Amino acid sequence: MTKPRAGILSMQRIYNYGSFLQAFGLKSILESLGCDVQFVDYEPGKCLVTSPSSKKGVARKAEKALEVFRYDAPLRDKLAFIRYKRTYAQRFYPMLGVTEKPNLDPDIDLLVIGSDEVFNCVQDNANVGFTPALFGTGSRAGRKVTYAASASYMKDGGIGINTDFSRFTFHGNTSFKITKSLTAGTTFDYSETSGNEIPSSGIGNYWTILGRGMFMPATHRDYLEDGQPGQGTNSTTISAAWFDRYYTNNYVTRRSTANFNLKWDIVDGLSAFAQIANHNSYKNSYQYLAGNAISQTRQTYEGWSQTNRLSFQAHVDYNKSFGDHNLSAMAGYDFLKRKINGMSMTVQGAESDKTPTLGAGTTPTAWTDTQTPWCQISYFGRLNYNYKEKYMLGFTMRADGSSLFAKDNRWGYFPAVSAGWVVSEEKFWNVEKFNQLKLRLSYGLTGNNNVDYYDTLGAYSVTGIYAGSGATLASTLPNLGLTWEKTKQFDIGLDMAFFNNRLRVAADYYSKKSEDLLFDVSLPDTSGYGSAMQNVGSIRFYGLEFEISSVNVSTKNFSWTTDFTYSFNMNKVLSLPDEYRYKDVDGKDAWRIGGYTMSETGFRFGGTAVGER
């Protein structure tokens, strides 16, 4: 059986011994897989491939021509590139086992680009994903399937007690050329992290372990004569050695992400893309406080939380030019579903440290149970048109539906339009030293659904034991009228360039008005609730931005540039609901949320008020 042929294209000239070692390492890997390896190179800046579509037949440079080395590019383009090469590695041929300048076989099976990324994989002894099965024996082999995989492991002792951890990660991706116009790809990532940590909840926390420890006197003995750790100056000021002996806190976190995508080049200028992905994260935490001179309660805490996120995206793209008219369009769909589950419990009263489990405890002291599903669906589209890159129009549209709102308020619609005019491209433009002038204009609507899971439907919580039974209380006031916060924004700007683009000036003015603001409003004590999320009033933001950039000196070995930026931003409350209306000290109507009232004069200040900036 004929050996598969592999050619190594060095994107960096093999001038020095370090570059030689990189190339030699890659050559060794390919030869160990049963390949016949050849080396090729090119002269940077040399005219390599003449593009028939380029103006006046100007040849593309080497840096431009590297795009032909995509795995799905026609082999004839690769060979056309190589025919114009010049080799700089001749002095290393004897060291590489090459006796003469190689002539490339037109039936080469695989061309390996020796990029920095591939060389780094070689240096790290990682799997670069080359197998003889991919090379085959024909001129089209090696282009159907490409894949790569990597793995890493790290262990760190941390900088203090209960801070050590270890982490293992794995990444793999594959690309399949199913047909000439259909490509599939997969990606998989997995990581596992485990160790000890200083907790923010449970039995201990940052303060009891670090904060109180800083109050230990410098003369304190960490260990007593019998080898046992000293407990500290009192029952709350504990030494680090004491925590290290009696306190256990460890965790394991596992994350995985799987992705599958398809790209279909339907006809010239029209393509479709679809992708589905699933992400899962699971964390288990365990804490135990052993019996000691301070406490014999033997508290045990265990909790777990899981986040699952499923997403699907699909869009169709169209790009076409009709003479001087250029058109691009896109329409798509986005689906995202997330679910967070969790549970934790703390018990105490175990008889012995030999059974540090939840089941050994006799008295539960705290517990939580969480289920928070959420879903969002979006439809979106974009249409762009330009004439000679001189007149530009753009239109976008989004429709977003969020499960965070009640059924009648879930959908928000957000259109936007933009226009541009490059005045300096007009025939009448003939201003010396003023080589660019562009005007920009846009107007659009955006949305915000930053509310908690239960701000719309309300929530209940179990606060403890009442007369031997669980006590369930309403903890979040429902508001079925909550809806999307909407922001309308207008922008106008201009870009100017002078003296062959050595001096650039950009100026912008914006004005945006936000309505149905999502605001956590404080409630009176008599309501039984502390606050409630509401859509309240409107606010306006506006301002100017001005920027000047200049190239003062530009030589082969030295450059000097300057940048100057100025911005002015202001906001003003435009309206608040009438339930916040009151009479000010002058007898006029005023609106204010929160703030303070002077007991003697009745003057109110602070909080959020209409008319204030």
Summarize the topology.
Layout (H helix, E strand, L loop, with lengths): L4 E6 L6 H16 L3 E5 L8 E2 L8 E2 L1 H4 L9 H9 L26 E5 L1 H8 L8 H4 L9 E12 L8 E13 L4 E15 L9 H6 L28 H7 E21 L2 E20 L10 E23 L2 E24 L14 E25 L3 E12 L8 E12 L11 E15 L10 E8 L2 E8 L8 E14 L4 E20 L8 E24 L4 E17 L5 E3 L5 E5 L2 E2 L6 E2 L2 E2 L4
Parallel strand pairs: 1-2, 1-5
Antiparallel strand pairs: 3-4, 6-7, 7-8, 8-9, 9-10, 10-11, 11-12, 12-13, 13-14, 14-15, 15-16, 16-19, 17-18, 19-20, 20-21, 21-22, 23-24, 24-27, 25-26
Model description:
By secondary structure, the protein is mainly β. The chain has helices at 17-32, 62-65, 75-83, 116-123, 132-135, 206-211, 240-246, and strands at 5-10, 36-40, 49-50, 59-60, 110-114, 145-156, 165-177, 182-196, 247-267, 270-289, 300-322, 325-348, 363-387, 391-402, 411-422, 434-448, 459-466, 469-476, 485-498, 503-522, 531-554, 559-575, 581-583, 589-593, 596-597, 604-605, 608-609. The strands form 6 sheets. It has a 15-stranded antiparallel beta sheet. A 3-stranded parallel beta sheet has the order 2-1-5. A hairpin with a 3-residue loop joins strand 13 and strand 14 (391-402). Helix 1 crosses helix 4 (116-123).
